[in-house]
Each structure stands twice: as structure tokens, then as C-alpha cells.
Write a structure and sequence with these properties.
Length: about 210
């Protein structure tokens, strides 16, 4: 099963991808997580990523394609994967076409009014990238990951100012992918505005009907 998770920042792409990893035993490929790992390692890619992510804009297509292609070629991706945050614009989608087969594009549909709140109250595990929320999904122990005990941190791009820029980048660059994938017959719209479990049930119903 090869899936793309589409949706604005804070729609729940990472949250749902992590649930799907558990259920279908295929890996989540989050380009955001790969870039944050590069930043923490201090690599050349990390230096570019740091500048770009904190401005709320996208990295160049060629860099992202190379990163994703390398990750997809690893053995754990042979039975499928969940692309979370990739592709992010038409150019990236075109670079994927012909190189990578996709079975479905899950488009998480959420009222944009809730996104700033969701993002500014998000906390992420520094070890395993599990996603929490101070109100909607608090950890059992404050500041610690339920799954691995790692420290939770707040992403540097989850400030109100950067979130607003990310939402604008989404509207200009990423939203056109909705029509693009609809025209290819791959788009599955999912109401992601209510509970996380209800959203997961809707996604699973769609995936099981493929
Ligand atoms: P990335 O890390 O992909 O960020 P994003 O797309 O902005 O998406 P988020 O991770 O912020 O949101 P999400 O949809 O995963 O929501 P989550 O599940 O965490 O990318 C970061 C940056 O990297 C980009 O800005 C760009 O610079 C660069 N980049 C990445 N990919 C790139 C690419 N392909 N090309 C170029 N540049 C790229 O949920 C959010 C919060 O809401 C959490 O707290 C969660 O607990 C909560 N929540 C989730 N679902 C619900 C619900 N149903 N009800 C209530 N709360 C909920
Ligand atoms: Mg995410």
C-alpha cells in the first residue's frame, strides 16, 4: 500500500500516519522529520533545512526528490509506505510521477480556523517523533513521551508567525495538488476536523475499499 497524506499544517498528517504505521506495518516517510533529523545532525542538508523551515517555505524540489527516493529504496519500504508531507507542490508531484506508484492520496480536510491552535499546542518527541497535543492528546507524564520516555519539545516553526506563513505556503503551493490528484482519480477526501480516532476510522474504511 503506497499512500500520500495531504493536508495543511496541523491537519493531522503525522498523527494519522503514525496510527497507520501501527495498523498496516508500513513505514511513515515524513519529509519534515527527515529534515529535522538532518538539522540535529548538523549536515549540509540540515543547514539549508534550518533556514528554510523557520521561514515557513519549501526546500527545492531536487533536494527533496533525492531524499525521498533514497528513503523509498530502503528494504523496509518494499511492502509500501506512507508519504507524509511529500509531494508539496505540482513540481514535486511531477518528479514523483513515473518513478513511484501511488495507490491513494488521503486529503485531510479541516476548517483552517483550528490549525493555529493545534500547532501552537503541539509537542513532539525528540527521540521517536511521536506527536502530542497539550489539550487534545496530552502525554501521561508532562514533558515525556508515552511511547519511549523521550523529552517532548516544541517545534521552532510552531510559532504563530511561522504557522501563518506555512499556511500561506500551503494555500499557494500545496492546495493545487488536490485538483491534480483528483484528476488522476487518486484523491480521497477525509473529514479530519473531529476526533483523531474518528478520522482514523474514516481513513481505514477508504483504504480497505481500495
Ligand atoms: P512538516 O513537518 O511536514 O510540517 P507541515 O506539513 O507543516 O505539517 P505538520 O507536521 O505541522 O502538521 P501535521 O499535518 O503532520 O499535523 P500533526 O499530526 O502533527 O514540514 C515542516 C517544514 O519542512 C515545511 O514547512 C518545509 O519547510 C519543510 N518541508 C517538509 N516537507 C517538504 C517538502 N516535501 N518539500 C519542501 N519542503 C518541505 O497534528 C498537529 C497537532 O494537532 C498535534 O498536536 C496533534 O496532536 C493535533 N491533532 C491532530 N489531529 C487532531 C484532531 N483530530 N483533533 C485535535 N487535535 C489534533
Ligand atoms: Mg507532520
Amino acid at each position: 500500500m503506497r499512500i500520500i497524506m495531504l493536508g495543511p499544517p496541523g491537519a493531522g498528517k503525522g498523527t494519522q500516519a503514525q496510527f497507520l504505521v501501527e495498523k498496516y506495518k508500513i513505514p511513515q516517510i515524513s519529509t519534515g522529520d527527515l529534515l529535522r533529523k538532518a538539522i540535529s545532525e548538523g549536515s549540509e542538508l540540515g543547514k539549508i533545512a534550518k533556514r528554510t523551515i523557520d521561514q515557513g517555505i519549501l526546500l527545492p524540489t531536487d533536494i527533496m526528490f533525492k531524499l525521498v527516493k533514497e528513503r523509498i529504496s530502503q528494504p523496509d519500504c518494499s511492502a509500501g509506505y506512507i508519504l507524509d508531507g511529500y509531494p508539496r507542490n505540482i513540481e514535486q508531484a511531477e518528479s514523483l510521477k513515473g518513478n513511484v506508484e501511488i495507490d491513494a492520496v488521503i486529503n485531510l480536510v479541516v476548517d483552517q480556523g483550528v490549525l493555529v491552535n493545534r500547532l501552537t499546542s503541539r509537542r513532539t518527541c525528540s527521540k521517536c517523533n511521536a506527536v502530542y497535543n497539550l489539550t487534545a492528546r496530552p502525554p501521561r507524564v508532562e514533558g515525556k513521551c508515552d511511547a519511549c520516555g523521550g523529552d517532548l519539545y516544541q517545534r521552532s516553526d510552531d510559532t504563530v508567525e511561522t504557522v501563518e506563513k506555512r499556511l500561506e505556503t500551503y494555500r499557494v503551493e500545496t492546495e493545487p495538488l488536490i485538483r491534480y490528484y483528483d484528476n488522476l482519480g487518486l484523491l480521497k477526501n477525509i473529514d479530519a476536523g473531529k476526533g483523531m480516532n474518528a478520522t482514523l476510522d474514516r481513513i481505514c474504511a477508504v483504504l480497505e475499499s481500495l
